[in-house]
Amino acid sequence: MYTQSLSIPDGDPKGPRKVENPEYEAEFNARIDAGGFIEAKDWMPEKYRKTLIRQISQHAHSEIVGMLPEGNWITRAPSLKRKAILLAKVQDEGGHGLYLYAAAETLGVSRDELTEGLLSGKAKYSSIFNYPTLTWADIGVIGWLVDGAAIMNQIPLCKCSYGPYARAMIRVCKEESFHQRQGYDLLLQMMKGTPEQREMVQDAVDRWWFPSIMMFGPHDSDSVHTETTRWGIKRISNDDLRQKFVDATVKQAEVLGVSLPDPDLKWNEARGHYDFGTIDWEEFWDVVGGHGQCNVDRLAARNKAWDDGAWVREAAMAHAEKQAARALAA
Amino acid sequence: MVADMTQATPPSLEHVEYVLRLGDNALILGQRLSEWCGRAPVLEEDLALANMALDLIGQSRLLLTHAGRLEGKGRDEDQMAFLRVERDYRNLTMVEVPNEDFGRTTVRNFLFSAFQVLLWEKLVASSDSELAAIAAKSLKEARYHLNHSAEWVIRLGDGTEVSHARTQAALDYLWPYSAELFAANPTDDAVSAAAIGPAWGELEAAWEAMVLPVLSEATLVVPARTPFKTFGKFGRHSEHMGHLLATMQYMQRTYPGATW
């Protein structure tokens, strides 16, 4: 899954301060200009480090929160094959979260600090997961559209300037592509089925289409990415990525036999792209601002899991300490 | 599979019943473990629980497919999993009771996976070649589940006062259900006589030898046996089973005949 707009501020992450040094900065910029990677032990401007911590952790949080809307359907999956596929998929999302947290940790922040940011509501995660999964078709549409949009966003990140993040993204992208194909396959099967199944797919597409294209974040005119572009973190603009996604998806919708819920969606010969209707940015900012249908429930679910599990984590620590003491005494 | 289809005599009812028990145990515990998704105490355990659920659902697919073929009524894995009535499920009651907390979930995984390891070790040599092949695959998975859950039983039992108390409570709750594992019955006798698989009662001593040292290392006290009896594997379940099935069967019951 994915974190959306990169320009949404979190709280200020803590971590070791590093001396700003014009000479180092020149070397740093030169390496980025030459297309090289910055590694964990390399000098980097403080703002670069903080920007990356924010972006990688938002991405990790999105993977973790994203387990909830899909997890909502594991126990009700309509066949054993689909249940197994969904379980494996959600497990993959958790795995993405795990190694993205690990990538963030290379920047001098702990997973506990990042978790605290999520649980307190200070850190953001992708707003797409604040929409509810109402039917089984939502599981297919999340794979097709939401993972599809995520892949479009993430492929450029495989070449982002920070090495540990870029390498994590290569693996994430491979798995996400697989998820997208599985989601599309789920929908194809349903479209071959009964009228009720086809209606279920259309209803899910109607609900998820605009939220999916909102995942690319605000229009370029409303979005400031000067530094992230300069630093080779953001390679392609929000609107360009969104256009690419729309162009690719229209044909897939035709093959599937569903309509996309936008009367203004049509091919523009002169531009060589599809035009599409106005995005409801008020809805986008409302959901980002905590007023989506599931914001409160998602955060409550994460907090409950964390609080309910406190005794387990404490037990593991206590046992490890006892073991160490026993080893010392022996 | 071919071997079974071409058997000179049709498979016995007991043979079908025995395979159903194995398949339903895996299915129902897999369903329970999948309820943990997104709710575990740490991310690593979220992944581990999903992984175990996935292994068990995978085992259930093979076993229910096999049971359907042995039965010979043309039922596939999904018809077996989703379209039977409660009385026709043959899982142990222990695997259907609610997860409750990480303590009960872990102790159950431990008690059950120890049993599964012993069972699969025997079934590798089953006269039913399909069952033997499923056992060989499942044995590796069950050994992992056993190692993982045993480590956690020790951590929790020998952790803090709170974790010890919660884990002891989980063991006190689950232990009486373990009697059902070994209860003698005609199905086991027939299957054992045909060298398809062991009577589960034969495994009791080995099971105790496997679980008791771990419980002891976890500083847990094993409860005395009581007259408590459950009958899930004979199709008489707990009050919890109907709710589990209502959730699991929802789509198949709501959209009869649809393909997914």
What structural category do the secondary elements of chain B indicate? Answer: mainly alpha
Order of helices and strands of chain A: HHHHHHHHHEEHHH
Which two protein chains have the largest interface (Cβ within 8 Å of the partner's Cβ), and how many residues from each? A-B, 51 and 50 residues
Helix count from the secondary structure assignment of chain A? 12
Radius of gyration of chain A: 21 Å
Spatial separation of the terminal alpha carbons of chain A: 48 Å
Kindly summarize this structure in a few lines:
Chain A has 330 residues and is an all-alpha fold. Chain A has helices at residues 22-33, 46-71, 80-105, 111-120, 136-154, 163-191, 195-214, 226-230, 238-256, 281-291, 295-308, 310-329, and strands at 266-268, 273-275. In chain A, α3 runs antiparallel to α6 (163-191) and α5 (136-154) runs antiparallel to α9.
What characteristics describe this protein?
heterodimer; A: 330 residues; mainly alpha; two-stranded antiparallel sheet; 64% helix; B: 260 residues; Ferritin
What does this protein look like?
Chain A has twelve helices and two strands; from the N terminus they run αααααααααββααα. Chain A has helices spanning 22-33, 46-71, 80-105, 111-120, 136-154, 163-191, 195-214, 226-230, 238-256, 281-291, 295-308, 310-329, and strands spanning 266-268, 273-275. The radius of gyration of chain A is 21 Å and the shape is globular. The N and C termini of chain A lie far apart (48 Å). Chain B has 13 helices and no strands. Chain B has one domain (13-222, 231-254): Ferritin, core subunit, four-helix bundle (Ferritin, Up-down Bundle), CATH 1.20.1260.10. Chain B is mostly helical and 260 residues long. In chain B, 51% of the residues are buried. Chain B starts with a helix and ends in a 6-residue tail after the last helix. Chain B has helices spanning 2-5, 13-34, 43-71, 77-82, 93-96, 102-123, 129-157, 161-174, 179-182, 186-193, 204-217, 239-248, 250-254. Chains A and B meet through helix 2, helix 3, helix 6, helix 11 and helix 12 of A and helix 2, helix 3, helix 4, helix 7 and helix 8 of B.
